[in-house]
Amino acid sequence: MNLDWQVCSQARLSRDARFDGKFFIGVLTTGVYCRSICPARTCQEKNVRYFPSAAAAAEAGFRPCLRCRPECSPGTPAWLGTPNTVSRALRLISESGLEDGGVEVLAERLGVGSRHLRRLFLRHLGATPLAVAQTRRLHFAKKLIDETRLPMSQVALASGFGCVRRFNAGIRKVYKRTPTQIRRLARQTSPQAENQYFFRLGYRAPYDWDVMLKFLAARATPGVEDVDVGSYRRSISVNGSHGYFEVSLDEANVGVAVRVQFGDPRALFFIVERIRTMFDLNADWAAIARGLRSEPVLAQRIAAHPGLRVPGCWNGFELAVRAILGQQITVKGATALAGQIVKTFGQPFAAANNLTHLFPLPEVLADAKLASVGMPGARAETIRALARAVCERRISFDGVTDSDAFLTRLCEIPGIGKWTAQYVAMRALGEPDAFPSGDIGLLRALDLESSAELERRAKAWRPWRAYAAMYLWNIANGKGARERKVSGKSKSGPPDFPASTEERCNLAGSS
Asked: What per-residue string of b and e applies to 204-226 under the rule 16 or more CB within 10 Å gives b?
C-alpha cells in the first residue's frame, strides 16, 4: 500500500478522524507510533514517518503510544488497497490469529506459497503475516490490561500468548513496561461482576446507529436476540461455553460500548472481533460515500442519512436459516417463525433481558421435524439440507477463503438461489460488493423492470454494492410505506426481503 505523505501530513496536522486507523505515525524523537488523532503536541514533519499498518510501525522499531492507544483505533478495512489474497488472509488472521498452523498453513488455505504471501503482506501492509498477527495479539492484550480486571495469567491466555512468560516478554519488549505498570497507568475501571467484561470499540464517523438498530430489531429472533432502548443484546455459544453480550452507542467516544458476559476469557478475542464485523465497525465510510455518489438517487440518500452500515451477523448458519425463512413471507412472519424454532429446538439459556435460548445447532436441525412449528414442507427440507451440509463439512461459514466457490456450494442446496446466497454474502461473509440484483425491493427503488438492467447500472457502484443495497432497500421501504398509506393499510417498518423469482419457483414446485 503506497501512502501519499502529503495526505498523511494534512490528516496528522488536522487530526482528521476519518483517517484514524488507516495509517500510523512513527515519531523519531520519542520512538512511539501514534494514530492520526493523537492529542500529543504536534511534531515537525522531519521527525515523523508514516506506516500503512501498526505492524509495520512496530517492525520499524516504534512502540505504541500510551496516550492515543493505537489498539483502540478502528480496524483497517481488509479490502482497502489490498488484493483479494491479502483481504482473505486478514479475515482469517482476525478469526484465529494464525493459531491453526502458522503462515504456511494460512498460505496453503489461500492457495498460494508462503513466500509469495509474505511478499504481498510486505508490499501492501509493510509487515509480514506473523508480524500482523503478533501486533493484533499485543493490542488486544493491552486492551484487556486497560479495560478489564482480569489477572495477568488470564490476559495472557485470552490474547493468545499461551503462557505468562511469553506474554510478559512480549509486552515488555513492545511497551518498555511490565503489564502491571501499564495497568497502574490505565484509568481505573469500575469493578465488574464475575465473568463480565466491558470494551469500547471505535468506528469512523458518521454511523447511522438508529437504522442499524431498526434493521436488527425487526429481525431479532425471540429468546436469542433483544433490542431495547438503544441497545442490542443476544445469547452466544463459543466452544461449548455460553454467555451473552450487549452493544450500545458510545457517541462521545466515537464508538460502541460492549458488555460481555462469558465464562471463558480465552474466547474474548473471537467475541470482540465478531462484534466488530457484526456491526461493520471497520468500514471506511468516506471511501464508500465517494464510490456511491455517482448515482443521483444514492447521492440524495447519502446526504440525508450518512453513515449507513451493512449489518453482519453472529453466526453464518443462523443467518442462512433466517434468510430461508424470509423467502416468501414478511420479515415479521419470518421472525415469529424463527422464534418458534428456537423455542422448540433451541437449548434453554438462563440470562437476563429476555434471552432465554441459544439458537439450535446444525446437528439439531439436520433431522428436526420443522413442520411441527408450522413451516411449509419445502422450506423445512431446505433448512434440513443446509444443516446436513454443515454437519458433513461440505459447507462452512467460518474461514471462507473463496467466496465464489462457497456461494456456488450454497446454491447447490435445493431452495437456495442467487438472492439467498448474495444476502448471506452480505451479512455472513462481510463482502462489501455482494448484491442480490434479483431482489424486488431493489428494482422498485429505482423503478427498473429487470435484474439485468439493475446489474448494468450497479457496475459503477463497485466495490460497494452491498452498501448501495442497504440504501435502496430503505428507499423501497419508504415507497412501500407511502403506497400502504394511500391504500389504507397501516403496515410500516424496515423493508421485507422477498426471495428472487428463481427461489419462489423452486419452493413452490417443491411444496
From this structure: bbebbbebbbbbbbbbbbbbbbb
pLDDT tens digit string along 257-291?
999 999 999 999 999 999 999 999 999 898 899 99
What is the CA angle 403-408-414, rounded to 5? 135
pLDDT in tens, 101-128: 688 888 888 888 999 999 999 988 899 9
Active-site residue set: 34, 439
Section 55-82 average pLDDT:
86
Contact 441, 472 (CB under 8 A): yes
- Backbone dihedral region for residue 187 (phi beyond 0: left; psi -120 to 50: alpha; all else: beta): beta
Grid coordinates representing 432 are 462489501
Q: What is the DSSP string of 160-211?
A: T-SSHHHHHHHHHHHHSS-HHHHHHHSPPPPP--TTEEEEEEE-PSP--HHH
Give pLDDT tens digits for 287-340: 899 999 999 999 999 999 999 999 999 999 999 999 999 887 888 999 999 999
- CA–CA distance, 51 with 71 (Å, rounded to integer): 15
Q: Which of 208, 198, 101 is nearest to 147 (CA)?
A: 198
Residue 307: CB atoms within 10 Å? 19
Number of CB atoms found within 10 A of residue 395's CB:
21
For residue 206, is the peptide bond before it cis, meaning its omega torsion is within 30 degrees of 0? yes
Of 432, 457, 465, nearest to 84 by C-alpha is: 432
CA distance 123 to 1: 6
Cis link prior to 463 (omega < 30° from 0)? yes
What is the longest distance spanned by two Cα atoms in the chain? 72
Distance of CA 344 to CAs 77, 113, 330, 359, 386, Å? 39, 48, 21, 10, 19
List phi, psi (to 5°) of 459.
Answer: -60, -35
User: pLDDT category, 191, cuts 50, 70, 90?
Assistant: low
Question: If DSSP codes are grouped into helix, strand and coil, which group holds residue 328?
Answer: coil
Cβ proximity of 55 and 109 under 8 Å: no
C-alpha cell at 142: 493491552
3-state DSSP helix/strand/coil percent for the chain, to nearest 5?
50, 10, 35
Whole-number Cα distances in Å, 49 to 13, 125, 499: 13, 15, 51
Alpha-carbon separation of residue 452 from 145, 216, 446, 448, 455 (angstroms): 53, 30, 13, 10, 5
Q: What angle do CA 120, 111, 106 make, to 5 degrees?
A: 70
